[in-house]
Amino acid sequence: MSRVGEDWIFLILLGLVMALVSFVMDFCIALLLQAQKWMYGGLDSNVILQYLAWVTYPVVLISFSAGFTHIVAPQAAGSGIPEMKTILRGVVLKEYLTLKTFVAKVVGLTCALGSGLPLGKEGPFVHIASLCAALLCKFMSFFGGIYENESRNIEMLAAACAVGVGCCFAAPIGGEKFLPCNTSNYFRQFYVREYLFLGNVHPIASGFGGALFVYLNRLIVQFMRKQKTINKFLMKKRLLYPALVTVLISTLSFPPGFGQFMAGQLTQKETLVSFFDNRTWTKQGMTEDFNYDIHSAAWKHPQANVFVILVIFIVMKFWMSALATTLPVPCGAFMPVFVIGAAFGRLVGESMAAWFPEGINTDGTIYPIVPGGYAVVGAAALSGAVTHTVSTAVIVFELTGQISHILPIMIAVILANAVAQSLQPSIYDSIIRIKKLPYLPELGWGHHEKYNIRVEDIMVRNVRYITLNSTYRDLHEILLIANLKTVALVESAESMILLGSIERAQLQALLSQHVGRERRLEFIRDAERKRVSVVSTPSSEEGGPKVNHEVRFQSSITPARPISPKPLKPALKRTSTAEKNIEIPTSNITHSLTYSSIEEWEEQQLDEQVNFNNCKIDPAPFQLVERTSLHKTHTIFSLLGLDHAYVTSIGRLIGVVSLRELRKAIEGSMTVKGVKVRPPLASFRDSGTSGTSSESEATELHKLWDRHSGLSIPREQQPNASDSDDKSQ
């Protein structure tokens, strides 16, 4: 049975499960798309009925997907890659890796893709694979071993992300390359900067187009959120917005209507097949007698040439895809962008075929124009620009089975990435910022502020710490800040020499062992034994027989009702009379202990010095010196996956910097490019050196300190996505 818990067994099971899930979903999606075509074709005698069927069918599917997702698991809406990037960063997001989310994601995505709207499945498949991995980890943990380790579960989730991409495109190598491109800023920027000098007009246009798509998508979301009246109305009528958007897109793509100018009757797969066709659609040169097949015929219109049709398709699909990806259903943006990029490449290829009908003559060799090759390059370039990944080139190789265009594809993807990264964040980072997920943003290029700003300018100086001479009362007070994950341990308050850090769970264990329920019950038993177990032996008259009058007062130390051992009862919290009867053992005599005596004992215990001998202490928490630059700090946090670091000066603890402060500084230093979340970074150095300004730079965690007036032993709380990066302070 121990062999069952090994890595290769887990990965085999994960691959098999995802293959089965992917096959079933693709089969159901194909049936739904075929049903729509069957309904549309069966009503060809009446255009009005055709329109009603064409519009009603996707409205029903999208509405069901949105409603089912909202009821079962709202976390299943959207792509899933932004949340997975955050989870792989070490942040715990509630309900994102549960069975309910898996069901909602699978059912909702199947209905959304079956509706025929311009939606993708790459991001949702990454999330689905991660859900399978998380559920398998829970199952494998029954066998013990490595799957009880949280860090190993993160590794399995990383492998699952690659499996999701591999299942989506049948591209295992591209899936493996997709993970570091999306989760590592350093990996991505390395390749982009190394090949920045390569490129041509086509990938530059794709880079601008990718940045424009991200901007348009974010603009739509922000517009809907800023309109409070519309937002409140749509919050009450949750299915109205998906239905209206679906009606709009379906109406414009209706084949007998405006859809005839944009091949509205083709699905995304059929559209890609026609774009990747090597034969040109223009009626010049070698294609004079070309007979259009069923897919290519959709691009032939008696009143417009192929160039007008492609331009209309690109423009319409561009804003339609940006709008459709804002729907509250499980969906991705990769495939719609991939199709738009292929259309742009096809447009360039057809233009080249029109300009050079006989091909290009180089050194006596004639090279014919292959429009399908341009479509492949355009698809890879635009999708890479939107997602900021270079792995799209590898995905295209595996998707098409051709590597003859490897050089132009790599050049196009890398250059499009360079242009897009200088203008906008990736679509996933944009969603992260919209949802305010705790993820470290990228550093922009050409910003000298990142070298001028130092850690001492952005760190939090009011650090909560404990010393070797701290009492249990100090532990109790420091734990009142519920979001603290680790606490710094220093030698003394005078020297501030950093000795290590202690996790919150360890401090809770120390406090519970010293003044917890077991210790209090032990004190009560000892005290009652002294007071209650009274033996008196009085004598009768002198010379008479001595009678042994032994009186034993038996007290009941059993609580009035059973107490669950799970929650830790507050040590000094003043409770009601009913709670006192539960916590304090009652006695059948009048000599029972009073509540004040227990409080007095607890006060004495809290004033005792802490014994750290049985506590696990991290002797080497990650430290930075105060003059470390923002650029170097960002690189270290990104490469090592840190969520906080202590700032020391010659071994003395002087501050702490977490993801919150680092993200705040990075977003503030970006004054022009990308998403401007905060105003330009002010002069931290002038205000940071004074002790009076440290309170203004303190995070919200430290502001919670004065709000807790009662004394109670805090319990471990599940972190939220919004404050998980503040726990280290």
From TrEMBL:
<feature type="region of interest" description="Disordered">
    <location>
        <begin position="681"/>
        <end position="729"/>
    </location>
</feature>
<dbReference type="Pfam" id="PF00654">
    <property type="entry name" value="Voltage_CLC"/>
</dbReference>
<dbReference type="InterPro" id="IPR046342">
    <property type="entry name" value="CBS_dom_sf"/>
</dbReference>
<dbReference type="GO" id="GO:0005886">
    <property type="term" value="C:plasma membrane"/>
</dbReference>
<dbReference type="GO" id="GO:0005247">
    <property type="term" value="F:voltage-gated chloride channel activity"/>
</dbReference>
<dbReference type="InterPro" id="IPR001807">
    <property type="entry name" value="ClC"/>
</dbReference>
<keyword id="KW-0868">Chloride</keyword>
<feature type="transmembrane region" description="Helical">
    <location>
        <begin position="239"/>
        <end position="258"/>
    </location>
</feature>
<feature type="compositionally biased region" description="Basic and acidic residues">
    <location>
        <begin position="699"/>
        <end position="709"/>
    </location>
</feature>
<feature type="transmembrane region" description="Helical">
    <location>
        <begin position="306"/>
        <end position="327"/>
    </location>
</feature>
<keyword id="KW-0407">Ion channel</keyword>
<feature type="transmembrane region" description="Helical">
    <location>
        <begin position="53"/>
        <end position="76"/>
    </location>
</feature>
<keyword id="KW-0813">Transport</keyword>
<feature type="transmembrane region" description="Helical">
    <location>
        <begin position="125"/>
        <end position="147"/>
    </location>
</feature>
<keyword id="KW-0869">Chloride channel</keyword>
<keyword id="KW-0472">Membrane</keyword>
<feature type="transmembrane region" description="Helical">
    <location>
        <begin position="334"/>
        <end position="356"/>
    </location>
</feature>
<keyword id="KW-0406">Ion transport</keyword>
<keyword id="KW-0677">Repeat</keyword>
<protein>
    <submittedName>
        <fullName>Chloride channel, voltage-sensitive 2b</fullName>
    </submittedName>
</protein>
<dbReference type="InterPro" id="IPR050970">
    <property type="entry name" value="Cl_channel_volt-gated"/>
</dbReference>
<dbReference type="GO" id="GO:0034707">
    <property type="term" value="C:chloride channel complex"/>
</dbReference>
<keyword id="KW-0129">CBS domain</keyword>
<keyword id="KW-0812">Transmembrane</keyword>
<feature type="transmembrane region" description="Helical">
    <location>
        <begin position="195"/>
        <end position="218"/>
    </location>
</feature>
<feature type="transmembrane region" description="Helical">
    <location>
        <begin position="154"/>
        <end position="175"/>
    </location>
</feature>
<dbReference type="InterPro" id="IPR014743">
    <property type="entry name" value="Cl-channel_core"/>
</dbReference>
<keyword id="KW-1133">Transmembrane helix</keyword>
<feature type="compositionally biased region" description="Low complexity">
    <location>
        <begin position="687"/>
        <end position="696"/>
    </location>
</feature>
<feature type="transmembrane region" description="Helical">
    <location>
        <begin position="9"/>
        <end position="33"/>
    </location>
</feature>
